[in-house]
From TrEMBL:
Keywords: ATP-binding, Nucleotide-binding. The keyword Metal-binding does not apply. CDD domains: ABC_DR_subfamily_A. The keyword Nucleotide-binding applies. GO terms for molecular function: ATP binding. Pfam families: ABC_tran (PF00005). SUPFAM superfamilies: P-loop containing nucleoside triphosphate hydrolases (SSF52540). This is ABC transporter ATP-binding protein. Residues 4-229 form the ABC transporter domain. It comes from the Bacteria. InterPro entries: AAA+_ATPase, ABC_transporter-like_ATP-bd, P-loop_NTPase.
Length: 300
């Protein structure tokens, strides 16, 4: 079932077009990755989905309704962002208490466990918390709120590697027990690639990939071997990337799902991070060939 639906959404700030003609759906009970380079438009999209901003053109539906100033929708939505500000006198426990009043599914026991695990000092004022501790406040709220639609806009950037892994593990375990719709915006694609089930990539305001992670991974491979054999194999396919050392060539290809090793060619899967990076680097005209529709996921 569709939880979020965007149709032709554009957002302009003066001369800057932050989001251009974006159409895509997000689905109930899935973890989505919202990926893209700095300034691509991810936060702008998330702000519009959570009623904190409105589109210049186009239509947004969240749980079937316009989210802007819509209390019915917004009580089902939790938006955690990196730059979250708390009142100066707030301690972490105040932020958690406020969240417990706002979110109907709040699990106080789960929140207490997470506070322990993230070593979050509850009685330190927010302005004296470290960057990582502030991130942990957001992560604890985002998880314990169990909101039907939960968006994390890189809130875990301040977390160290151990705490980030803890976040991924706890998110996955809790999501398995309490399925809900999750959107993660991140630059750490390799770290979240096992979590993400559906990928939306935005670049310069345009949606350039929108598909299940499984479909995307099965579309691309790297093929390496002697130059001539690789070129023959690659003929007729979209080449996302090409590197050459001496007579040895390695290409990233799209649209060869059944490729297998041969005597002189080595075929390897492409990581989600490589696929996103290479596709983002491609010229606009070639992107349509990477299953990167500015539209809805195929077959839905
Ligand atoms: N309130 C605003 N006023 C003017 N321009 C804005 C505003 N918010 C965003 N923009 C512009 O819109 C574009 C998209 O910004 P956005 O914050 O959505 O990108 P992002 O993908 O979240 O980037 P990052 O990964 O760096 O956080 C940028 O060019 C940014 O400068």
């Amino acid at each position: 079932m569709t939880v979020v639906s965007l149709q032709g959404v554009t957002k302009r700030y003066g001369a800057t077009t932050a989001v251009q003609d974006a159409s895509f759906d997000l689905y109930e009970g899935r973890i989505h990755g919202m990926l893209g380079r700095n300034g691509a438009g991810k936060s702008t999209l998330m702000r519009m989905l959570t009623g904190q901003d409105f589109p210049t053109a186009g239509q947004i539906r969240v749980f079937g309704q316009n989210p802007y100033e819509n209390a019915d929708v917004l009580r089902q939505v939790c938006f955690i962002k990196e730059s979250q500000k708390y009142p100066d006198i707030f301690q972490a426990r105040h932020a958690l208490h406020a969240a417990s009043l706002v979110f109907p599914n709040w699990d106080a026991d789960f929140a207490a466990e997470l506070v322990e695990e993230f070593r979050l000092p509850l009685k330190t004022r927010a302005k004296k918390l470290s960057r990582g501790q502030l991130s942990a406040v957001g992560v604890v709220i985002g998880l314990a709120a169990r909101a039907p639609l939960t968006l994390f806009d890189e809130p875990y950037l301040g977390l160290d590697a151990v705490a980030r892994q803890l976040f991924y593990d706890r998110l996955l375990a809790d999501y398995a027990e309490h399925p809900r719709t999750i959107v993660l915006s991140t630059h750490l694609i390799d770290e979240v690639s096992d979590l993400i089930e559906h990928v939306v990539v935005i670049d310069r305001g345009r949606i350039i990939m929108n598909d299940s992670a499984e479909n995307l991974r099965s579309q691309a491979v790297t093929v390496s071997g002697p130059s001539r054999a690789v070129e023959e194999f690659a003929a007729g396919h979209t080449v996302l990337h090409r590197e050459e050392i001496g007579g040895f060539v390695r290409v990233t290809l799209v649209g060869v799902p059944d490729a297998r090793d041969t005597d002189n060619l080595r075929v390897e899967p492409v990581s989600l991070q490589q696929l996103v990076v290479r596709t983002t680097q491609l010229a606009d005209g070639d992107r349509a060939l990477v299953g990167a529709k500015n539209g809805r996921e195929a077959g839905r």
